[in-house]
Design goal:
159 residues; alpha/beta; Rossmann fold; six-stranded mixed sheet; 30% helix; disordered N terminus; binds S-adenosylmethionine
């Protein structure tokens, strides 16, 4: 009789499964906060945000400590299991409430028009279907909500 795979036993597959990248990123990104000035980039990206924020592709949660007190809640979506576990730890040290959940940018597991701002930092270059991810960001932002995105430098624009 053939062995049943983990998937057929009902264990859900992660939308993103890159354990090696995740471990490398977790190490390198922490050093980059000071060495490459990433902490300042994060600070600039998140300054001025308020209300309910969705962060997509939160990684190991390095943005969490930079959210200003004007933010009432962050819902942080991270598809990669290793990074998500680290993000849960980081959430415990944030000064604003952060709820970490699995999910992918192309199908955000949240209601429409539920957020005042969306944050995607260093994420869009790894997303497979960028037009779909952007449509999802638009769906979950309330009219007039802000979307902050960074690649190597911060930039922000309205919905
Ligand atoms: C370079 S890391 C950036 C992490 C974090 N945003 C930061 O600023 O440090 C890229 C992140 O995008 C996530 N990612 C990759 N594909 C994704 C997708 N389709 N939807 C959401 N996140 C995704 C990865 O798991 C990883 O956490």
């Amino acid at each position: 009789m053939p062995l049943r795979s983990a998937r057929t036993r009902g264990v859900p597959r992660d939308a993103v499964h890159h354990p090696l990248f995740a471990r490398c990123y977790a190490r390198i990104s922490v050093g980059a906060e000071t060495r490459m000035g990433m902490a300042r980039v994060r600070e600039r990206l998140l300054t001025g945000l308020s209300g309910r924020v969705i962060e997509v592709g939160a990684g190991n949660g390095l943005n969490f400590s930079h959210y200003p007190g004007t933010v009432s809640e962050v819902v942080a979506i991270e598809p990669e299991r290793v990074l998500r576990t680290l993000a849960v730890d980081a959430a415990q040290h944030a000064r604003v409430p952060v709820d970490v959940a699995p999910g992918a940018a192309e199908a955000l597991p949240v209601k429409s028009e539920a957020f005042d701002a969306a944050v995607v930092s260093l994420v869009l270059c790894s997303v497979r279907d960028v037009p779909r991810a952007l449509a999802e960001l638009r769906r979950v932002l309330r009219p007039g909500g802000r979307c902050g995105s960074s690649s190597t430098a911060g930039a922000a624009g309205g919905r």
